[in-house]
From TrEMBL:
The keyword Transferase applies. Keywords: Aminotransferase, Pyridoxal phosphate, Transferase. GO terms for biological process: gamma-aminobutyric acid catabolic process. InterPro entries: 4NH2But_aminotransferase_euk, Aminotrans_3, Aminotrans_3_PPA_site, PyrdxlP-dep_Trfase, PyrdxlP-dep_Trfase_major, PyrdxlP-dep_Trfase_small. It is an enzyme of class 2 (transferase). It catalyses: 4-aminobutanoate + 2-oxoglutarate = succinate semialdehyde + L-glutamate. Belongs to the class-III pyridoxal-phosphate-dependent aminotransferase family. This is 4-aminobutyrate aminotransferase. Homodimer and homotetramer. Gene3D superfamilies: Aspartate Aminotransferase, domain 1, Type I PLP-dependent aspartate aminotransferase-like (Major domain). Its EC number is 2.6.1.19.
Amino acid sequence: MLRVSRLYPKSRVGRALATTKRYQSSVCGAYFPDEPSRPELITERIPGPSGIKLNEDLGKVFDNRASNFVTDYFNSIGNYISDADGNKLLDVYCQISSIALGYNNPALIEMAKSDSMINALVNRPALACFPSIDYGKILNEGILAAAPPGMDKVWTALSGSCANETAYKAAFMYQEAKRRGSIDFTSEELTSVMENKAPGASEKVILSFDKGFHGRLFGSLSTTRSKAIHKLDIPAFPWPKAPFPQLKYPLDEFVNENHSEEERCLAILEDIITKKHPPHNIAAIVVEPVQSEGGDVHATPFFFQGLRDLTKKHEILMIVDEVQTGIGATGKFWAHEHWNLSEPPDMVSFSKKFQAAGFYFTDPELQPNKPFRQFNTWCGDPSKALIAKSIYQEISKNNLVQKTAQVGDYLYKSLSSVFSKYPDRIKNLRGENMGTFIAWDCVSPEERNKLLLACRTKGVNIGGCGEVTVRLRPTLVFENKHADVLANILEDSLKDLYK
Ligand SMILES: Cc1ncc(COP(=O)(O)O)c(C=O)c1O
């Protein structure tokens, strides 16, 4: 552990990691015993002067107009993110939902210092052509050990968008291979595809849902339907979309209405499949367990089971996009485990909290009939697969998914109590029994943004999504004590805004 503390000897992290004993005790009690017990604020505003200056300099060479504040990752620890001015904020946004185990997690730092990691970093392989001697073992002990129930194969990719796009390509090649049967590619296919035309270029489509988000590369962007600004000016495939249920809250007061809404959406979907498209034209349907960027829109297991039934009935592949919901935050390792599907999805994509990206599948036919059809230079990254392995092992060793489910229940109750005092300002609290994957709505985008800013000024880094939604995306080492800090600061912020 001394070696680890040498990494950042003068920082809080270095001091925290210097004591092996303290870390060992952390896994059964507080995970990061040396993180601050509450936000530590140095400047009146965040960003402060140092952050503003650094950002100005960076802006001359890099488009940083989306920057919230410049971060000091050396001095961030556990659930607390440090900015360039030394402010320490409780982080419930976590790099857009992608920090699983807290900043400077000792287990990940150990992995980062290992020979395997050094080797993976300095000799990045073109994995499909020259796979490393240990890639199979790394996958089996990490990404594949974490595979969703019933799935046993993976294709590794480079980002969430890339994970989805490679899944879409697998879907098209699978469906066209089924159409073609045992016949090889025709000469017409081979020539027309070079003109970007059918029959070589498939005319099949991927269906996605209104307000869904699946990424910003060309193919994934065509399935993204959350905000126009992400799509403007970019050529798009003419692919269909279906409505996603709009549930009313609290759920127990609108059981019948919500059920009818889900039936309505399933009926429209079946209409699109059967009346608006020729048979077998829809290669796959992609769906998020909770539409995250679109505003944390939930549906019930009834809807997702209905979707699975329709995809089976019409021989359409079902892709579940778990880029944001995967890796424990909903109180299950994979959010779709909440649904108890009669049959697993055909593909499940992942990225974010796993750091590595890709998609899981089971059917060997989802691997195209020839090499190089699903291919790029790197086809993933062993260094990220090693980090994913450490994340998986740390989650398993410390029961972090179960703990997240418990902390989520505690947090949900605390928030219900705080928000009950502001029924006209805060609406649609959602994510009960979904771990810490909790969200609520404000009454306008302006009020939502004011709340986000008020929280930041009081020491909580928190994110929005959709038009009026606040979403929580804390780490899996977020405990009841952090939930208390969050609830208190939210309450103070609401008091200030609506006194
Ligand atoms: C559900 C979902 N899918 C795909 C993506 C795209 O991932 P990336 O930004 O890594 O390409 C995101 C990103 O927010 C996402 O939330």
